[in-house]
Amino acid sequence: MRRSLQDVLPLSPLQEGLLFHSEYVGDEAVDVYTVQTEVELRGPLDVPALRAAAEALLRRHDNLRAGFATRALKDPVQFVPREVELPWEEADLRAADDPDAEAARRLEEHRWRRFRPSKPPLVRFLLLRMAHDRYRFALTNHHILLDGWSMPMLLRELMLLYRTGGDASALPPVRRYRDYLAWLGSRDSGAAQDAWRGALAGLEAPTLIAPRADRAAEAPRWLDFALSKTASAGLTAAARGAGLTLNTVVQGLWALTLARTTGSQDLVYGVVVSGRPPELEGVESMIGLFANTVPLRARMPVDEPLIGFLRRLQREQSALLDHQHLRLADIQRQAGRGELFDSVMAFENYPDGSAEEPSDPSADAPGRVRVVASKMRDAMHYPLGLLASPGPPMRFRLGHRPSAVTPRLAAALRDRLLRLVDAFLAAPDLPLGRLDVLDDTERALVLEKYNDTAREVEDITATELFLRQAARTPGRIAVETAERSLDYARLADRSGRLARLLAQHGARAEQFVALVLPRSPELVETALAVWQTGAAYVPVDPTHPADRVARLLREADPVLTITTADLADRLPAGLPLLVLDAPSTAAALRVLPGGPLDPGELPAPVGPQNAAYAIYTSGSTGRPKGVVATHCSLVGYLLRGSDQYPSDGRSLVHSPVSFDLTVGALYVPLISGGTVRLASLDDEPVLRPGEASPDFVKVTPSHLPVLEGLPGEVSPTGAITFGGEQLTGRHLRRWRADHPDVTVYNVYGPTETTVNCSEHRIAPRDPVGDGPVPIGRPLWNTRLFVLGPGLAPVPVGVPGELYVAGAGLARGYLRDPGRTAERFVACPYAVGERMYRTGDLVRWNEDGLLEYLGRVDDQISLRGFRVEPGEVEAALAAHPAVRRAAVVLREDTPGDARLVAYAVPTEPEGPQSTPPSAPPMPTEQILEHLRRTLPPYMVPAHLMELPALPVTPHGKIDRAALPEPSVAGAPAGERPAPP
Question: What is the C-alpha to C-alpha distance for residues 509 and 324, in angstroms, rounded to an integer?
């Protein structure tokens, strides 16, 4: 056996990758690294001579005879037999019914027949006679042997050998592939690793075009397109004038295309480099696999000019030229992660592709066989790849796996690239953030058609809406509990009487009144009373820790705080208080008239632009922020809810009034003649025996298990609205099966957009997939913009940050102009308007519905509450036993999302003669500290002690590497219930 071997050699980096892929996919799968080059021959072909030329070609190039061995070896090797049998097939198709169809079938079969790497040669030939003097000739090989640069040279040699009868003496001496492998072995891998580590430093995430794509092998589809001759010439001239290579320009424009498709400003894709080192003599004429795939990282700050970005990209790529030989797996390790990308690009600036010898004047002589056409059928295992050829004209082939990248997306990528070419030719100094890949139709779709929501709304306050309804239906029940009820007339009368008392205590327009009250008819009555004075209310949940309540009251600085006798002692001293159930309050109310206030009784004029309420949410700095909604923003939401929901029936209100989910469930019925049923889903029974089911309920998705565990009559009969966190069809399926006639609404909206700004309606029995339910379309007079870098609109299907504009925007944050200016910014698509930056990552789908994808920051949505990890981490760090902390949301069990905290203990104080045996962290003390400081929904369900927080290679907390709570066996805190 050894005497039959000529050589045993190592593998090049790309050969290792291709061999791994070939063996990984198995013998039954398509090997996408099978390449076929076909030429059409015209003339009196001497078939035996062509076959002899092919045999001579295999004798001449050792690496064409190579096989590959991996079993029982530490490292794979390629072995070169001294001789191999020529794999040659031929057929005469002149008598076939359809010669071209038969040829296509045979070529396809020849192409996809698998090679076995251990059975050389990994190349075969097929000759098909189509007519008297016309042939189709195919050379099929595994990519592990040859790169694209080699193919034109190989075909040229084949034709020269044909003309010399297989005599290779007329050809220049062969430079052996082993010389290149020896050069590879001499490289300084340490320096290369350092270079790549620096180039990829700070990279936060891989760039995946199809992150959920099946990695099974699949034949790609190809989309071919080209620049016009004018554009090709212009691109070449512009590149030359700017000191850029054409390759750099195409690489940069393709990076921008991917950026506008992924929503990323710091991305990576693979580039195929020639791998032919100029210092290796004769390398340009060597035949074999020299190419390598390496990452190209493109950072695209919005304010950098396009031409500046391209020049920087060229400098960065030039700095890595000496290190492009490193294996991709080794490069990925330097980045501290596995897969970096799932798309590649190759700039095919190969030698002359003609199989004829350019210097041969007899190439077209009569009686000579001529090569009249050639084509290469290539493939790839990546979901997406771009091949660029300089031309002229410049041509592109966009390859995509159909199961991962749809034809529509492929066409969109083509169009975006071509628009960026036009942009480079027209305005190379334009900042990257101002580059627009949308055409006029796409722009109108995402900016105008999807936001066609204009609706006439009364210029009125929410107070007036309620009082008008009370006059229409005075005897109808407005608010009830299991024990008592108030009709509309009594509610209007009592709230008016209380309003007169509040006005005496300073309540008036643009003043804030804090409500520290339990869920009760008195709470509803008091909120309406505050509104009748023109003031705004600040709801404070009395179940929150006393420290938290005190902090919110200090932040709000209310003109008056309204509470009850049993809660008053928990409030800070010095507050201006009104205790509702105090005898003095009852005495004061007895002498005041009831009913609505006359305009002359109001301390100051009241209108739709006045504040209606301020609801506090979690703050990233550790300081809560109060969102101020106006009557104008609230009324549009309420009237739309009255129009959409079964609002004149019974609405079950179970959540605290300090949670903005409650706003719609409480006030939409009260302006529509409905009944608000106050209850707690934690009480048994929720409803009285025999009590009718509610018509409408608004809950978070986390309430679904609660509803499923309660008697069926607690669930609504008309409509249910989900909001506050992501809803999936899988979680919804069981409840819908038991309530098939109920309409489901999935709503979305930060508190800053006055409860909700978008909605997706699911009619009874409409099918719903298992995945996330869309958050739908904008509500009345609301515009939703999905924007990328530079606030440019992104195309359909592309992730971007959601910005909300329109009548529903809140005024801003109470007594916090800095944060208001940061989050409420000028809208570039409506003169004089603002838009709110949500921090949510979304995209439009093909049906014009918004899909929620996640956050652009670390903010968490938990059971409908907004949680800033920074606020929880700040509370943890305030405990003396905690040195450092991290907080994440985990869902290790589907449907059971929990807040988990990780804490590093403080080091023992004082000198230590020996390494200390530190006592365990006082977990219960820390949890109790959090319970005194934070509301229940912000107290982690688990607190885990760690010796150190894991970090990425770039020094940031690696939240993905934090362990599961069950692994560490840490004690758990209480799991807060949904609101």
Answer: 69
Q: Classify residue 641 as left (phi > 0), alpha (psi -120 to 50) or beta.
A: alpha
3-state secondary structure 958-973: CHHHCCCHHHHCCCEC
Residue 27's alpha-carbon distances to 31, 32, 73, 219, 401, in angstroms, are 9, 12, 20, 15, 20
Can you give the pLDDT at residue 716?
94
Taking only the tens place, the pLDDT of each residue in 66-124 is: 999 986 667 899 999 999 999 999 999 999 999 999 999 999 999 989 999 999 999 99
- Strand 512-515 and strand 536-539: pairing? parallel
Strand 777-778 with 292-299, pairing? unpaired
Q: Tell me the pLDDT tens digit for each residue of 414-457.
A: 999 999 999 999 999 999 999 989 999 999 999 999 999 999 99
For residue 839, give both structure tokens: 């921090």
> Contact at 8 Å (CB) between 491 and 524?
yes
> How far lies 765's CA from each of 205, 489, 643, 827, 847, in Å?
40, 40, 22, 39, 19
Residue 694 C-beta-side C-alpha neighbours within 13 Å: 33
Cβ proximity of 147 and 111 under 8 Å: no
Helix (H, G, I), strand (E, B) or coil at 551: helix
- Are 112 and 217 within 8 A, CB to CB? no
Spell out the residues 6+ positions from residue 812 whose beta carbon is closer than 8 angstroms to its own.
627, 628, 819, 820, 823, 824
Q: Where are the beta strands (DSSP E) in 670-713?
A: 675-678, 696-699
**CATH fourth-level superfamily of 2-175:** Chloramphenicol acetyltransferase-like domain (3.30.559.10)
- Do residues 166 and 275 lie in contact, with contact meaning Cβ atoms separated by under 8 Å? no
Interatomic CA distance for residues 728 and 623, integer angstroms: 32
Q: How far apart, in Å, are the Cα atoms of 6 and each of 1, 2, 889?
A: 10, 8, 60
pLDDT per position as a tens digit, 472-530: 999 999 999 999 999 999 999 999 999 999 999 999 999 999 999 999 999 999 999 99
For domain 868-968, the CATH architecture is: 2-Layer Sandwich (3.30)
What DSSP designation does 690 have?
A: T
Name the amino acid, one letter, at 859. Q
Contacts of 904 (CB under 8 A, 6+ apart): 882, 883, 884, 885, 945, 946, 947, 948, 949
Asked if 775 contacts 747 with a C-beta cutoff of 8 angstroms, the reply is: yes
Q: What is the DSSP letter of 89?
A: E
Domain range list for the chain: 2-175, 181-201+219-353+381-438, 463-844, 868-968
What single string gives the DSSP state of each residue in 702-770? GGHHHHHHS-GGGS-SSEEEE-SS--BHHHHHHHHHH-TT-EEEEEE--GGGSS-SEEEEE-TT----S
Q: Give the 3-state DSSP-derived string for 409-446, with helices as H, strands as E and coil as C.
A: HHHHHHHHHHHHHHHHHHCCCCEHHHCCCCCHHHHHHH
- Helix or strand holding residue 399 (H, E): strand 395-400
Residue 819 exposure: Cα atoms within 13 Å on the Cβ side: 16
CA-CA distance, 419 to 407, in Å (whole number)? 18
Same fold across 2-175 and 868-968: no
The CATH fold assigned to 463-844 is Rossmann fold (3.40.50)
* φ, ψ dihedrals at 267, nearest 5°: -130, 170
Q: In this structure, what token pair is assigned to residue 431?
A: 């900042």
Which residue has 């139709």 as its token pair?
441
CATH 3.30.390.60 fits 181-201+219-353+381-438, yes or no: no
Q: How far is CA 52 from the centre of its chain?
A: 57
Q: Is the pLDDT confidence value at 471 over 50?
A: yes
